């Protein structure tokens, strides 16, 4: 599984990467880190990730607009939204656009690991 | 514009507790909650998120360097540079503001966080009488200023 991590916080990007690399998620390897939606789309076109963790509140291009674009790709990735926006309508919007999971910030390493494994399962 | 209720403010108290519990397994001690004035003294690292839409205002999270360094170490982060400390305080502000949408709903639009180092001039960025929540975590004092009004 090829993973792209998208978040405007460097700390969150490196934390997700660390959890993936240190908690037995060996079948997942990281193909890119992006700090906003535009960078994410560029990396996604180059690396064709299977899975994307997606923040929603980002500069330049937000997560909702980015999910919409990713879902138009020939082989859209499985998307786990990782966001502090924890109201129901935000989650429903993301899921309607095609995201497969929603993880609220703040999260524990275990919660992230489980959520990632869940969105990596074949449909 | 309507001001916030006690329940609204409790949301931010709970959000601070939840954030620190989830990231460090230790809740902070809430030391006070009051209507502030220009004498509120901020700490060295500050994260500010603005609210728009059905609400206006901002939330300010102000933390000392030692607290942020401990928080990052507990999250196994080795890079304790100023950039990462500012990133951390911005992420706390972003998380508290985002969590507020559970109560205030999608009409509460939030900005990406602004991160500032230095206590000087910070209180001038919020209105004269913000709600202030002070807390202590691992001996470190910190505060959250909530300046939010319904339109």
From TrEMBL, chain A:
One of its GO terms (biological process) is phosphorelay signal transduction system. Keywords: Phosphoprotein. PROSITE patterns: RESPONSE_REGULATORY. Pfam families: Response_reg. The modification 4-aspartylphosphate is found at residue 55. Residues 2-120 form the Response regulatory domain. This is Response regulator.
From TrEMBL, chain B:
Residues 46-135 form the Chemotaxis phosphatase CheX-like domain. One of its GO terms (biological process) is chemotaxis. Keywords: Chemotaxis. InterPro entries: CheC-like_sf, CheX-like_dom. The keyword Membrane does not apply. Pfam families: CheX. It comes from the Bacteria. This is Chemotaxis protein CheX.
């Amino acid at each position: 599984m090829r993973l792209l991590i998208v978040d405007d916080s460097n700390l969150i990007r490196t934390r997700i990467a660390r959890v993936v690399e240190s908690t037995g998620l060996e079948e997942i390897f990281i193909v890119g880190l992006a700090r906003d939606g535009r960078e994410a789309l560029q990396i996604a076109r180059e690396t064709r990730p299977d899975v994307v963790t997606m923040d929603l509140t980002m500069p330049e291009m937000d997560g909702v607009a980015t999910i919409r674009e990713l879902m138009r790709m020939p082989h859209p990735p499985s998307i786990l939204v990782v966001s502090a926006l924890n109201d129901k309508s935000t989650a429903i919007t993301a899921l309607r656009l095609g995201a497969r999971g929603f993880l609220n910030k703040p999260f524990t390493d275990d919660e992230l690991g489980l959520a990632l494994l869940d969105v990596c399962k074949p449909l | 514009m309507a001001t916030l209720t006690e329940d609204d403010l409790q949301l931010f108290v709970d959000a601070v507790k939840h954030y620190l519990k989830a990231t460090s397994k230790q809740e902070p001690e809430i030391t006070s909650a009051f209507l502030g004035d220009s004498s509120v003294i901020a700490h060295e690292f500050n994260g500010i998120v603005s609210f728009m839409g059905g609400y206006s205002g901002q939330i300010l999270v102000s933390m000392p360097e030692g607290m942020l360094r401990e928080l990052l170490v507990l999250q196994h982060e080795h890079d304790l540079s100023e950039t990462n400390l500012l990133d951390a305080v911005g992420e706390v502000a972003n998380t508290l503001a985002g969590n507020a949408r559970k109560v205030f709903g999608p009409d509460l639009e939030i900005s990406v966080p602004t991160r500032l180092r230095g206590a000087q001039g910070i209180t001038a960025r919020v209105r004269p009488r913000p709600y202030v929540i002070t807390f202590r975590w691992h001996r470190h004092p910190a505060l959250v200023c909530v300046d939010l009004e319904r339109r």
